Amino acid sequence: MTIIDPSAEGRILRIVDIAGGEGVRRRLFALGFQPGDRVECGQRGIFGGPVVLKNLRTGVSMAVGRGIARKILVAVDDAD
Amino acid sequence: MTPTEAREPVVLFIGQPNCGKSTLFNAIAGHKVESTNFPGSTVRHAHSRVVVGDATLNIIDLPGAYSLCPSDPAEKVALTHLFREKSDVLINVVDASILGRSLELTLEILEMGLPIVVALNMLDLAEKKGISVDPVKLEAALGVRVVPTIAVHGRGIRELVEAALEAAAGPRRPSLRPGWTPAVEARIGELVGALPADFPVVFNARFTAIRLIESGEAYGGDFSAASGLGIGTALEQTRAALEADRGLPAYEVLAAERHHQAQKIFEETSVVRRRTRRSFPERLDDVLMHPFIGYVVLTGVFLAFFFIIFKAGSPLEAFFLRPLESAKAAIDARWGRSLWATLLDGLLQGVGGGVAIVLPYFIPLLFLMAVLEDAGYLARAGFLLDTFMHRLGLHGKSVSPFVLGFGCNVPAITATRTLESRRDRMLTSLLIPFIPCSARTTIILALVAFYLGPLWAMGFYVANLVLVAGLGRILSLFLPSESPGLILEIPMLKVPSPRLIALKVYLHLKAFVRLAWPLLIGGSVVLSLFQYFRWDRTFNVVLAPLVSGLLGLPRELGVTLIFGFLRKELSLVMLLQALGTTFQELPRLITKEQMVVFTVFVSLFIPCLSTFVTLWKESGRKIAFLSAGLSVGAALVLGFIVRLLV
């Protein structure tokens, strides 16, 4: 699933892959989001607005537009 | 390097966006650059020469860069300087509250082999997040000096400068970066071995090899020409081997290893206390970014912003105007209509206009802007407005340049450098001149709000924003979208630092006094000469069909509209002068409707000289002239429509 999936809300997730082009991948890497990282979905903008994604590993939060959010593939990883 | 007293060490500040680099730089340089709590606010580099004890340092602040593979023009500026300046020591500022991420850049620059001091900044913020970093352990893990600092409180500054001086005088470190896995290390070694003897090595062969592997077509900066330098085949082989090893593109192999190593260092050197409940800034964010309450707050902030500026400004304006008017009356009584009196009048109008009309609104505006920036609210506004920005063919990252535009269009246009796509930069730069900057806010508040009431001014603002939105839609039809969408870091909210805010207001004010006052005063004096010798009539006659015919304004105002190109406030100051009246008596000479038309026209008509020059520099001549054409067109059309409506 991707981070815009309703079932991703409020769960602890693990980034499985970033299904985007090199530009998007590099940008997300630069902000410290890479496959394998545990993340949490935060606020969601209305009318298809952006999604806040918090990296639990690095502590960095970012807002990504829906277009990019759709490319961030995640799996639920609630095990503590 | 031989330590000589004669040579002044060059100290380069480098760090990721929003790590407190500019604040730290300021603490050392003594108030030269601005800092904000928005990723990527330093878009130019800043130089400063400082004397510390008996040493003189040349310090350079670079725009923040997430990594050494640039993806926006601001990062490119940082890297170009990093590679070109002959720096003796690098001060790498890291944000302790997101240490794992910050260290990724540190690991990259460690490969350069230059003397490096790490400034472990924002320790207070880290503590609030429940993170304690052990500087001694970090020093051991990185193999370079680590100095704990809290830039906003000026803590650790002296130690940092001393450490930098020491490192500059010390021996060059060998290129060292622990931790590539043996397989990757071997591939890097192969490429190092394949570098031709005459290859333009940057810093050292190993660093050069790593940069070659990581740089892509568009991300290489100075390295993209590598294929022409006899290394193309070997580079392809190394990349292919890395990709075969891991099943990932070569640059990702390196990025992933670096990411994990940075995390490992962070985990080994820090203690993170688990919290049971969300921290206060996090809970505040739940409100500020709430899908409904968030917009209520945003609207409230926007309304409060202008009411406060108006409430603070208008009594001050009235207060300052009084002595000015009596001085003018005294001059007229004493010298009558002589050349001497006309010149003196012009001078008084210029000085008085700058002090009495502009400053009362300008200072509160600067102050509130600084508060919003420093608290980190702009990133939240970017999040909230992203959806609406999409309607204009842009996204949330353009919100920050737009908001800066309310202060002054010039830094707003430079701030578009943090946008990744050229198309977004162009569109944003074309729209920014339509954002009412502080000069135009002054006119709106001093004229419209002062005489017609604050609600009129508010309406004016809303209409102006609607215009920006409409123009954005139209322009984006001509610029097909290629923008990948929003990726915006949301920094932690913080309590704005009074010191930083005072500093920022001071810096803006200094720039205003230095740049705008000479133009305001000079412009007024020139206009008074024009009037004395009656040259202004020629202008006014030529412009009359436009000024009186189309806009229905007194034809005497023709010349003031022309001068508005220099500074927007100048039109207001000259309005009084041209009509030969005082501010209090103005309503007797022109009607309220005419005031609105005048304000509409002046606000929209042509970007001021500095904005025009900045547009030219940043986006080229075509965009600058296109922007000027758009503004003149919009000013004429809307001025005329407003005249018919009100």
Fold blueprint:
The complex is a heterodimer of chains A (80) and B (646).
Chain A: E1 12-18, H1 22-30, E2 38-44, E3 51-55, E4 61-64, H2 66-69, E5 72-76
Antiparallel strand pairs in A: 1-2, 1-5, 2-3, 3-4
Chain B: E1 10-15, H1 21-29, E2 46-52, E3 55-61, H2 73-84, E4 89-95, H3 99-110, E5 116-121, H4 123-128, E6 131-133, H5 135-142, E7 145-148, H6 157-169, H7 182-194, H8 205-214, H9 232-246, H10 250-269, E8 270-272, H11 280-288, H12 293-335, H13 339-375, H14 377-391, H15 399-407, H16 409-415, H17 422-431, H18 438-452, H19 454-478, E9 487-489, H20 498-532, H21 536-550, H22 558-563, H23 568-579, H24 586-589, H25 592-604, H26 609-619, H27 621-645
Helix pairs in contact in B: 3-10, 5-10, 7-8, 7-9, 12-13, 12-18, 13-18, 13-20, 13-23, 15-16, 16-26, 17-27, 18-19, 18-25, 20-23, 25-27, 26-27
- Largest sheet properties of chain B: 6 strands, mixed
In CATH, the topology of chain A is named: SH3 type barrels
Spatial order of strands in the largest sheet of chain A: 4-3-2-1-5
Q: Give the name of the CATH superfamily of chain A.
A: Ferrous iron transport protein A (FeoA)
Give the second-level CATH assignment, the architecture of chain A. Answer: Roll
Helix residue percentage of chain A = 10-25%
Helix content of chain B: 55-70%
Oligomer: heterodimer
Quick one: overall form of chain B? elongated
Commentary on this structure:
The complex is a heterodimer of chains A (80) and B (646). Chain A is α+β, with helices and mostly antiparallel strands. Helices cover 16% and strands 35% of the residues of chain A. Chain A has one domain (2-76): SH3 type barrels (Roll), CATH 2.30.30. Chain A has two helices and five strands. Chain A is globular and about 30 Å long. Chain B is built from 27 helices and nine strands. In chain B, strand 2 and strand 3 (55-61) form a beta hairpin. Chain B is elongated, with a radius of gyration of 28 Å. In chain B, 51% of the residues are buried. Chain A binds chain B through residues 20-32, 34-36, 42-50, 52, 55, 57-68, and chain B through 66-67, 69, 71, 97-98, 100-101, 104, 129, 131, 216, 218-219, 249, 251-252, 255-256, 259-260, 263, 266, 285-286, 289-292, 294, 379, 382-384, 386-387, 390, 395-396, 420, 484-490, 492.
